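Next comes one such specimen:
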Amino acid sequence: MLEYDIVIVGGGLAGSRAAVEIARTDNRLKVALVSKVHPIRSHSVAAQGGIAAALQNVDPQDNWLTHAFDTVKGADYLADQDAVAVLTQQAPQVIIDLEHMGVLFSRLPDGRIAQRPFGGHTHQRTCYAADKTGHAILHELVSRLFQYKVPIFEEWYVLELIVEEGEARGLVMFHIPTGRIEVVRAKAILFATGGYGRVFNTTSNDYASTGDGLCLAAMAGLPLQDMEFVQFHPTGLYPVGVLISEAVRGEGAHLINDAGERFMAGYAPSRMELAPRDITSRAIATEIREGRGVGGGRYVHLDLRHMGKEKILERVPFAHDEALRHLGIDVVYEPMPVRPTVHYSMGGIPTTVDCQALAAHGQVMEGFFAAGECSCVSVHGANRLGSNSLLECVVYGARAGASLARYVQDRRLPHVDEARHRRVAEQGIQNLLDQPGSLRIDALRREFQDTLTDHCSIFRDEQILKTGLEKIQQLKARYGDIRLDDKGKLYNTEITEAFELRSLITVGEIIVASALERRESRGAHSRSDYPERNDGEYLKHTLAYREGDALRIDYRPVDLSLQAVDPERFTPQARKY
């Protein structure tokens, strides 16, 4: 059995930053990082637009409190204000720390870090590295993992979070190349496993974003929080769905309908193309539904031509390359077709501001922490502002690392029955290989993803959600009928796909069930049968518990502590742009 003080699951920004912080805090601690892909292939590397901080390099009037207000308003007042205060107060120092690590941020002419405008932010506060910001940050963090000699278990898939007697004690994991099973015990475990965009059929997320960490937490009895809030990014390249960064609109691109109109004037006149993502996505979807998509089709145009070739190639080269590579469109001369695509998970494993996971409202789970997109601390509430996700990963990744380093100091390694956990895992895999099913994994996965997309998309109502939930339960019942053609264990990707499908089904059912119970419209959750926000009944976080084959929905209050600092701004009010 493997033994570590701390095991981190996930090699993206949050997980890597946590590992770096632990090494900096106490290099005597025995830390390991587990990832089903090489850390450099984590989805964080795909983040393009930037990372927000009130550095005041471009706008000296900016400050952390204004950043906090923009974040809370953007979240439709569902964000926990104590967590937002931590996020925005620590943001400037985080940027300086990243710069000192060697992150190559784009610069102003005088050498200071450049900052661009972003949707929902009232000041130019988004620091960036052209339109490859996640790539620039993750490479530096992973190089630090090598510097600090952190053991990396790459291409290991975690099968179980071991929770016994109310504490997390370890993991069971499966080596994808060889089929080997290992049991790990640890004084503390951090999940930094990312999001679950692959629950839907069209997403900007990579193929690894299957919600595995959230599934394992739910199976271990923890609640998942605010899962109904799924962000659609306004500009997915049509029809392939890959992301066209908000940085493109931040640099001045226009959204155009079939009539050639900048239609955002009718939805968010003060912010236009830089309205928050939920508002912009609904605007595009409405234009398409009402027949104003280009040529009557299912997309609108994102027009960069007026920006000029030099600016396009300097500021947003990746967006230029993506349109050319996928569609043969040179955006210097032609507009590109876009429509909303599933992008980000506001919901996740509920945590304290020190990243310790909550087993119930007010009750932490000993030994278990979460950070990054798989967590819900909650700094994004009902809708995340662009460039706050990288910030959350770095701020709360570092915070998780510091918390873990303190937490394990006087903690003993827990008891784990290695033989029993190994036997159960090996038998589970063998059962998968042996089951005489008739259904291919891909067929069931596609049907499931189509169901989520059809029944829990940008616009929802009770009947659509109820029907979707019934279909999900029918599809879940068919999971036992999947067939694996590859009967070996060496690099058998069908085994991994079968477990990922389990994750998708578990997470997807919770998303739809949570959406059905929230009878209001707030942020990314838009109910046509309940079109108004209802603070009286729903200014609270959803907690969804998996209990056997059933789900139980509960709620917990939202932290409103910044009201005491600035009641005029932080008291919930109508959200207009």
